[in-house]
Design a protein that fits this description.
Layout: E1 5-10, H1 13-23, E2 27-31, E3 38-39, H2 50-53, E4 58-59, E5 65-66, E6 68-69, H3 72-85, E7 88-93, H4 99-112, E8 118-120, H5 128-136, H6 143-170, H7 186-202, E9 207-217, E10 220-229, E11 232-233, H8 255-268, E12 270-283, H9 291-302, H10 306-318, H11 334-348, H12 384-387, H13 393-409, E13 414-427, E14 430-443, E15 477-489, H14 498-508, H15 513-525, E16 529-532, E17 535-538, H16 540-552, H17 559-573, H18 579-588, H19 596-601, H20 608-611, E18 614-616, E19 620-625, E20 628-634, E21 640-644, H21 656-664, E22 670-675, E23 682-688, E24 691-697, E25 711-712, E26 732-734, H22 746-753, E27 757-761, E28 768-774, E29 777-782, E30 785-788, H23 794-797, H24 800-808, E31 820-826, E32 833-839, E33 842-846, E34 851-853, H25 865-878
Parallel strand pairs: 1-2, 1-7, 7-8
Antiparallel strand pairs: 3-6, 4-5, 9-10, 9-15, 10-11, 10-14, 12-13, 12-15, 13-14, 16-17, 18-19, 19-20, 20-21, 22-23, 22-25, 23-24, 24-26, 27-28, 28-29, 29-30, 31-32, 32-33, 33-34
Helix pairs in contact: 4-6, 6-17, 6-18, 7-15, 7-16, 9-10, 9-13, 9-14, 10-13, 10-15, 11-13, 14-15
């Protein structure tokens, strides 16, 4: 044992390889590949434990004790770690230094039960100096951080498992069958997006006009804008409230007034300079990146989703290019400050940095501030150009952003001077005052390296365009040309983007920056929100979910209450509150809070139909069904009819006027295509709620068919004796995506009704091969063996020989060059070519042995050979997908982890 190695356990296989190289032969570095265990599913709890743990996998009556399991996916990993432990004389738990990393380290300690000394090894960057220093300066496990993470996990389980079933019962599922869910942060985030859309729906736009002109002297000209009329200020967008009313006394020009005024000024044709004001100013650089600000800037400047930005940052960190990417701190180490200043001077000169280093104050007080800000790793920063060849496209772009932000944070202020000139013109007895502004930077400072992006804001249209002004003096006379009236309309608050939502969540104190990416991904996946460009648009489903939560779980989606939960979790991480006492108050209630249990037990009656109703003026009621939104329109006789709402119509665009257009639009009748020659029945094309389709129906009275259009005006009603004697349902078939209701003909309809089609019989097995259209598209079926087809047209044209050729190829192997979106060189591990394909569940890379899905948010065009190799390596490291059964390795107490 005296000659054993030190066993270092990290989370990531990529990190494992880098650290092994830095520590050398005296250490063995292995990876846990993330968490090794979690709360059990209900089915995995033994019979003798079900009474205590059965509902939540948590014993709520005995200290909220959790029941954990190691599933089959991690049993191999745990076995490898235990084998390595036998030859180790010390264990260094080197998981990330945050709450989640501390919890992973504690779970490893609980499962492995080492008999040798165990220490906690932490680092903020993966460089040789940092890793060696971390191995020499270890600490004890921080059980306060473990408590905070376990409290968070238990809290989320109680919240989700008590509230989500209410959504299932009263709202159902999403449009495509997505399972609905509620969560501590996701529900608040969904409410924020819905609240913004409500503001947009209630918004009343106001119109206002002004006048623009070109002021010219000699060869110099610049744009001016009418600001005052007879000394009274002209209306701007910011002078109106959200109901279209004025908030202060201003002159509001209408179109006629603006045109008359412009014509009068045009006739005068000149203006005098009455005022010139020059004001100096400075701009200071922003702090280095935190997790939140990095996600925001990656969204604004690189069009990356929060999830994708975090995935790229994780790779940069694990490869040793940046410091740890989950941090709330804006601080830089003394060495990093020096590195940034030295690089700024080398690139931009001695004036580029101030005399004293800059420091930035941290607003957050949570435990993750032990980290530095996100910056390039090492004591001397590598320039983007020097590392570009070792990084893929997205890694290179994000590294460039981080490098620039870090360098700029230590650079000098930018200095500028803004000059504002006022020109007066005579407008047939009225004084029209125009203004123009120009800004000149006298010293660019940090702007040489970096300028922060900004989100869209209301009032941007009213801001003057920055321009260069010529030298002017009071009394100068300039000519006015191109005098034009300009119409404007106020606009509602812009929808959230991922960047602005991340910023708003952080400002409200909801969630933690390290979780924002996953939260946004959840609300997108659940169908609560969709993207229109960069904007996040809530679905009508989200309106129903939020309405239920506001009416029956008001505290749980209250922004202040949700933020207070985060503060309490931070207090637990600092050791200022106790886990069990806090959970007791949250779940069973206290003097300040009713308690989740009491809320759920006293919900009373919930009107599911009313929850799913949004009045659109007095025109109709918007409801959300299994197949999407629709208008419930009352008829004079007390009945109602359904009018589908287009998928691409955002909630704020469904005004009463737009609803009336949808209601009054002519309803396409059923068009008769002709007669089926085999049985004499009519073939009709219809446009139903599930999409367009053709149907075989009994012949109708000739008078019921419009000879000119072929439309069935009124289908004859048949009388039936009993349900048991009812005729079988008519044959139907959906139209292909390439077909439309207006263009499909009888021959095509008969072909569609012939599906599924028998292609032929396999000569070897004697089994029929059929061509069918299914939920995931067209496919072949031979017994239980199915193969995907490339197009719907193949359903009608594929021959037996072509079908046999498809079955002759490996099911999950190469399907020919045409099926690959991209092809790369051989994978260094398997030695086989890598291909990027578009599969049933999205794009993925494969070497014929291992398949790895392209993460959500990553563009297929951006996947490089290096990225494909990394995805395959990560997938191999995770092992095969879990089986249905779960190994029941449990721990329900932390006695063995008592502080030393």
């Amino acid at each position: 044992m005296a000659h054993g190695k030190k066993l270092v356990i990290v989370e990531s296989p990529t990190k494992m390889r880098s650290i092994q190289g830095y520590l050398g032969d005296g250490y063995e570095v292995l990876s846990s590949v993330g968490h090794i265990r979690d709360l059990a599913d209900k089915k995995d709890i033994p019979a003798d434990k079900k009474q205590a743990y059965g509902k939540y996998s948590i014993d709520i009556d005995n200290g909220f004790d959790p029941y954990y399991v190691v599933n089959d996916r991690k049993t191999k990993t745990v076995a490898e770690l235990k084998r390595a432990l036998k030859d180790a004389d010390e264990v260094l738990l080197a998981t990330d230094e945050d709450r989640e990393g501390e919890a992973i380290a504690w779970h490893l300690l609980e499962v492995l039960k080492p008999k040798v000394p165990v220490r906690r090894m932490v680092f903020h960057e993966i460089t040789k100096d940092a890793i060696v220093a971390a191995a020499d300066n270890t600490r004890e496990l921080d059980l306060d951080l473990v408590d905070a993470q376990e409290t968070r996990r238990v809290l989320d389980r109680l919240y989700g498992w008590d509230v989500s079933p209410v959504l299932w019962r009263k709202i159902g599922s999403g449009r495509e069958g997505q399972t609905l869910s509620a969560g501590r942060v996701q529900s608040a985030a969904t409410r924020m997006v819905v609240d913004r859309e409500r503001e947009r729906m209630a918004f009343v736009s106001a119109s206002y006009w002004d006048v623009e002109a070109r002021a010219t002297r000699d060869a110099d000209s610049f744009t001016t804008r009418l600001a005052r009329l007879d000394g009274a200020p002209l209306a701007r967008g910011t002078d109106f409230d959200d109901r279209g009313g004025l908030t202060k006394a201003v002159v509001v020009l209408d179109e006629d007034g603006a045109r008359d005024l412009a014509a009068a000024i045009e006739r005068t044709g000149r203006a005098s300079v009455v005022s010139i004001e020059a004001k100096p100013g400075t701009r200071s650089p922003k702090a280095p990146f935190t997790t939140s600000t990095m996600q925001q800037e990656a969204g604004r400047k690189l069009s990356m989703s929060a999830k994708h930005a975090m995935s790229v940052a994780q790779r940069l960190y694990e490869k040793g290019y940046i410091t740890y990417m989950r941090t709330d701190s804006t601080a830089l180490s003394a060495q990093a400050v020096q590195a940034a200043r030295e690089q700024a001077v080398a690139l931009y000169g001695d004036r580029a940095v101030p005399s004293n280093p800059r420091s930035y104050r941290n607003k957050s007080k949570n435990a993750q501030e032990a980290h530095e800000a996100i910056r390039p790793s090492g004591e001397h920063f590598r320039t983007p150009s020097s590392v570009a060849s070792a990084l893929d496209r997205d890694e290179s772009r994000l590294y460039d952003l981080i490098w620039k932000r870090t360098i700029a944070s230590q650079m000098s202020d930018a200095k500028y001077e803004t000059t504002t000139v006022i020109l007066d013109a005579d407008a047939e007895g009225r004084t029209a005052s125009f203004t123009a502004s120009g800004t000149v930077y006298t010293f660019k400072g940090f702007l040489e390296a970096y300028e922060e992006g900004r989100d869209e804001r209301r009032g941007d249209a009213d801001k003057a365009t920055d321009q260069s002004l010529p030298a002017l003096a009071v009394g100068d006379v300039l000519s006015l040309r191109d005098v034009e009236p300009k119409g404007h309309a106020t606009s509602p608050k812009p929808r959230y983007t991922e960047a602005s939502l991340v910023k708003a969540l952080e400002e409200k104190g909801i969630g933690r920056p390290s979780t924002f990416a996953s939260i946004i991904d959840v609300i997108l996946t659940r169908g609560y929100v969709s993207k229109r460009g960069q904007a996040l648009v809530p679905s009508w489903l989200a309106f129903s979910v939020v309405r239920l939560l506001e009416q029956h779980f008001a505290d749980l989606v209250d922004y202040d209450f949700t933020a207070a939960l985060e503060d309490d979790l931070d207090a637990i991480a600092r050791g200022e509150q106790k886990r069990v006492a806090w959970l007791q108050d949250f779940y069973f209630g206290s003097e300040e809070h009713v308690g989740l249990r009491k809320i759920v037990d006293n919900l009373g009656d919930i009107d599911a139909r009313e929850l799913n109703a949004t009045r659109i003026g007095d025109v109709a009621t918007l409801r959300f069904g299994k197949y999407g939104p629709y208008l419930d329109v009352p008829n004079p006789d007390g009945t109602s009819r359904i009018v589908n709402v287009p998928d691409d119509l955002a909630p704020d665009e469904l005004t009463p006027a737009r609803a009336r257009e949808l209601i009054d639009a002519p309803v396409a009748g059923d068009r008769v295509l002709g007669e089926n020659p085999d049985n004499g029945k009519l073939i009709v094309v219809k446009d139903g709620r599930f999409g367009p389709y053709v149907q075989e129906v009994d012949p109708v009275d000739p008078d019921a068919v419009d000879e000119a259009t072929g439309v069935v005006e009124e289908a004859p009603k048949k009388t039936t004796r009993k349900k048991a004697d009812a005729a079988p349902k008519p044959r139907t078939a959906s139209l292909f995506k390439s077909m439309t209701v207006d263009t499909v003909d009888l021959d095509q309809a008969l072909q569609l009704l012939s599906l599924p089609r028998v292609v032929g019989v396999d000569p070897e097995s004697g089994v029929e091969i059929t061509a069918q259209n299914g939920r995931y598209g067209p496919y072949l079926k031979k017994g239980t063996d199915s193969r995907t087809l490339q197009s719907e047209q193949q359903l009608l044209t594929l021959t037996l020989d072509e079908a046999l050729a498809i079955y002759a190829q490996p099911k999950y192997g190469a399907r020919g060059a045409s099926s690959a979106l991209k092809e790369f060189e051989a994978d260094p591990t398997s030695g086989k070519p890598i291909k990027l394909k578009d599969g049933r569940f999205g794009p993925y890379v494969t070497d014929g042995e291992t398949n790895a899905t392209i993460p959500r948010g990553e563009a297929v065009d951006d996947v490089t050979f290096e990225r494909a190799v990394q995805l395959l390596a990560d997938k191999r490291a995770k092992g095969p997908a879990p089986k249905r059964t779960t190994r029941r390795t449990t721990t329900t107490t932390r006695k063995t982890a008592a502080k030393k």
